[in-house]
Fold each of these.
Amino acid sequence: MKRLLASILPLILLTGCIERAVAPSDRVFPSKLYPYEVTYDAAEFKQRRDVLMQKIPAGRVVIVTTNDVYLRNGDVDYEFRPASVFYYLTGFEEPNAVAVLRKHRSAPGTCEMIMFVESREGSAVQWLGPVFGPEGAVQYFGADSAYEIGSFASFLHTFLASGTVQGVYGNFDANDDVESIFSDASGGSISLHNLDSLVDEMRPVKGPLEIGLIRRAVEVSTHAFAEGIRATRPSVYEYEIQATLEFVLRLNGCPRTSFPTIVASGPNITTIHYQSNSAMLSDGGLVMIDFGGEYGYYAADLTRTLPVNGRFSAAQATIYDIVKSSHDAVIAAAAPGVDFSTLTSLNIDLLIDGLLQKHVITGTKFNIISSGQYRLYIPAGLGHQIGLDVHDPWPADAGKGRILQENMVLAIEPHIYLNAGDQTVATEYRGVCARVEDDILITSGGCEVLSAALPGTRAGLEAMMNR
Ligand SMILES: [Mn+2]
């Protein structure tokens, strides 16, 4: 108990030091699900709908739905989280909601929004709490009109039968009920188009509200990660480190992680999406922690690889330093106008160079890369965008390349995985892995490492573990 208190007290004392990250704006409304400090600017969501509507050909409309509520077991549901595309366009957090977007008849170039949301009264309020209802959808979320969700099916039948709608952009993968209502109402005579791919073109460049939320998610996550690093030592269990990470995360206002926390030690380290977090950490081994919080629905995503006993062995240090130097080179090269595939190639070049120079593997760089052998050691991509999804979408049109632009946010995660049974790897390196993942904001002249407060060098990590 004494040990537990001693480990928790400093965490509690540390939690007061994070500044409010999101400034209130002129038109704000409270978030029921985020009562602490997130405020929303309804005008920003309206602007996104206006931009989207300019991409929609005449005669077509958008029907965007939030996620279904999924049964977990018995009469318990999984925690609800809105569909990212629905949230991006509406800011609406409650389940059982649909928005119909069309070109505004009286304000050309803008979007009209008709919302269908849940109403609650009587015992439903007693059990589940109040909802915004149609009135709230108009008052706070900028709906031009709003109705009870139960009337959506009859609305859609009438709307589609009117002959004015020639096509619909929808995201019906998110909700089977809405999909079947659409199938019934359209009778197969209205063309259905992919909404996500249009919104995917809009999401990469983040606005000020989004960047503020990501900064906050990263800030809290780095803070939690530091406590997770301090909790790492021989004989603790992976789930103890997970508990520390998630405790500090929740204590600082993040309602959830942005993906299931990975604490992979010993032989588990080679499982990229290891899930059980059930093993005990062994002296002399490594542990890889992949973790990030979600704040205001925006993700952070960080990885560190640690020596369980606080000191990297010679082989572990060699692999770690190869990864870290590539990580630094990629971040130095990240800037507006740079194609992400150029950074991917740079990373593979540097990692394979490093492995050859240190005699971890043998052969020629050309053969190892052109034959695809490098994928044995570098199984995953260099990184990805982050935003409402931890793997935020790139626009589907790959022909345009993945050119970095100011105010994109990315997770950069160079890694080397050397499997225990890999005969192409020198014996002493088999089973050694390293990954370092930071979150960066592309700026006008380069990038800012949002997670710079978390040590990434070998010396910095060892210092943090041995303090
Ligand atoms: Mn990642």
Amino acid sequence: MNRARRMRRARADGEARGGGRASQLDVAIDSRSTLPLRTGRSMPVIGLGTWQLTDETADTVEEALRRGYRMIDTSGDYGTQPAVGEAARRSGVDRDEVFLVTKVEEDEDAYESTRRNLGELGGERADLVLIHRPPEEGAGVELWEGLIRAKEEGLATDIGVSNYTADQIDELVEATGETPVVNQVEWSPFGWSPQLLDYCRERGIVIQAYSPLTRARRLDDETLAEVAAAYGKTPAQVLLRWNLQMGIAPLPKANRWDHVAENLDVFDFEIGEAHMRELNEVNERFSVLGSLPYA
Ligand SMILES: NC(=O)c1ccc[n+]([C@@H]2O[C@H](COP(=O)([O-])OP(=O)(O)OC[C@H]3O[C@@H](n4cnc5c(N)ncnc54)[C@H](OP(=O)(O)O)[C@@H]3O)[C@@H](O)[C@H]2O)c1
């Protein structure tokens, strides 16, 4: 049986992905698959992170696009935007097929910052612009209004947030009527939140997982190693697949080209329900940054 048929049969069997939690993914996925956004548009299921992607950034991003990555995550403060833009142009991949994500800082004017980011990326629009993190006080309604303006003027096709709690998202929505399409947060089996997942699913907000590989700090975990061995995959691939099966878009970063390739080779296996439950249970709110920014 070929892979597509196997995947379809898994669905037909009614196997709930995510260890009993309904998944947003209702089609067999591959590297070109997308997740629906609440605006009616869609976003690739996996992307390349570029924080500290400092080794020949443009070459690495170009190689990633050639290999099939279709989403690149950057930010005004990563220093990688010019190289990301250059790689997107050099790759030969149609601009409409590349999904560029960037972010504005919480102490900036969000609209002006979006314009500056576009200048660095070298394009007329970004596919998704996020508030990088909430400001020290409040949820950042003014920032959100700046991004709404950027969206209305076509500088950002979609807008969202990063490092937001459910309450902070509620505050933005109550003040403006505009719901973020994405909340980008640190997310791995070792640190995630069933409550935030339910909140986002109920509102059609897609979670993007940053530091999905725990910056390689938990790759030697015993449970993870056992699950990986069961499928003949690496621990990193299992971490990414766990996210995909939850309907969450992981953003693994890799300087090494073998890592870039390995992290996209996650579409030829499916973690079974029992293994998903085992992975869900290793949650200890682990964070590479010290603590998870959400409840
Ligand atoms: N919104 C936010 O506040 C926020 C915060 C942090 C990160 N992010 C975004 O999320 C992206 C990913 O997060 P991250 O960079 O913190 O960490 P990560 O993706 O969890 O881990 C990156 C590390 O894992 C290594 N690695 C990659 N693939 C591997 C593999 N297959 N096997 C073993 N090791 C592997 C990389 O090594 P090599 O580089 O040597 O290949 C690198 O050291 C960032 O780049 C950024 O775009 C967003």
Amino acid sequence: MSFSHVIAFAVFVGAALGSPGLQAADPVAPAAAAPATAAPDAPAVPLKPGDATAGQAKSATCAACHGMDGNPASSQYPKLAGQHEDYITRQVEMFKSHKRDSAVMMGFVMSLSAQDVHDIGAYFASKVSLPGVADAKLVQRGEAIYRGGDRNANVPACMACHSPDGRGNPGAGYPQLAGQYADYVTLKLKEWHDGKTWGDEDRAKIMPAVVKGLSEGDIAALASYIEGLHAADANSTAAK
Ligand code: HEC
Ligand code: HEC
């Protein structure tokens, strides 16, 4: 069974349904900090490749939630450390255009220029995601689906796109998952499972189709496995 087969059979709910998301628990009011941006009247210059040094200064407002080095203190915020620059850029553009709905993020990205976003993306991409720890009781089920999928439930192997060690594939737009907080991963997988989408581009249609057949237990197991996933694990598993 191929992935395109899985995806072709999935039914998409077009409308992104309102979801409680993470906003409710957010301690930092978006109005409290003004994002660091280039002057709005700056002359139109061609976009340069992301500059991590410039991005570090521009990411000061992001640090309150995502951590100075992209490793947040709280598991309600996603780790950005080590995430691919293009993936970060794409997400910020989707927040701006409301394709990816987040009241919290909206307040911080609207005034960022395209160059700011590339620089910030380059900065977080240059950092290293701190490995987490998986729940020993969930690892086996999580690993089985991550590496092999679930044929009966029409779920493809996550590693086919996100790679065995969770580093993803920047060229194809497949994000890094390794070490990501289980709380955040659970929330995203549940939202897609419940019909939420990130717009109607081909890339955004993949995950809602992938998660269709997952049970709540599967989602918890995958999220825990992903939080504990790092390069060394993938190697030792592959060597078994
Ligand atoms: C007040 C807390 C807060 C601040 C400040 C904040 N974020 Fe976020 N960010 C969030 C939350 C919450 C999410 C998860 C949104 C969702 O999916 O519901 C998120 C998600 C993201 C994502 C998507 C991550 C992924 O793995 O898909 C990116 C990229 C991001 N933020 C970048 C930024 C940048 C750049 C800044 C600074 C300009 C910033 N954030 C400031 C709370 C914050
Ligand atoms: C066919 C390729 C493909 C497969 C298979 C796949 N994914 Fe994904 N995944 C993607 C793409 C593409 C995105 C980003 C979507 C976007 O940017 O619109 C993504 C995003 C994600 C995210 C959000 C990451 C973040 O930082 O917000 C999570 C979590 C995730 N996938 C988990 C999984 C799990 C768990 C599986 C296996 C059950 C899986 N994926 C299988 C392509 C895939």
